User: Fold this.
Amino acid sequence: MIKAVIFDLDGVLVTTDELHFKAWKRLAEELDITGFTKDDNARQRGVSRMASLEVVLEKTDRKFSDEEKLTLAEKKNDMYVKSLESLDKSAVLDGVFDFIAYLRSSGIKTAVGSASKNTPLILEKTDLADKFDAVSCGLDTQKSKPDPEVFLIAAQKIGIAPSECVVIEDSDAGIEAAKAGGMYAVAVGEAENNSKADISVSSLGSLYRTIEMFGR
Ligand code: BG6
Ligand code: MG
Assistant:
């Protein structure tokens, strides 16, 4: 029986993916890396800041020390956080508020499971902060998706067994992490064609409208 839903953040709850892309692109340009594209950005989806940085640095022969990498990741984050200044609830994706309200009124627990260390800030700015029973994010974890750690911590925080949790994800790394953690995986948006997911939907809005139709 399903007792909890764990949501990824970027690309599932909010439209911050494009802002991550723009910040990485600017960092790449500052490093004279010209070939950083949306396809590269797709491989950054779901993974940690440092793993995302490696996708950018793959595009150059230059070598960077661990200290330099930390400085570059911090630089990207400063640009990203600056772009979050004007973020508000209009960045929340179609169907999210309705779907969460439906789950809570049905007695199903809700949690966030995101690689992003900016999760608390983003939830606050978008009026989502009080909508979840627990938040597990990059600030809690040691390992990046596809490792299941972030979702297992979310399940532990809400006190629900992994086998009774559904994860909603827009990244291949996240779908893999959910399955590795023994959870159901729903693929949305960019991950819609991932064959490892248990079900796929184009958006949370379409999922919610389908559920609502059967409730009528
Ligand atoms: C994930 C994004 O949600 O968070 C990744 O999909 C990003 O692209 C990762 O790198 C880490 O985010 P942050 O905000 O901690 O740099
Ligand atoms: Mg995502």
In short: The radius of gyration is 17 Å.
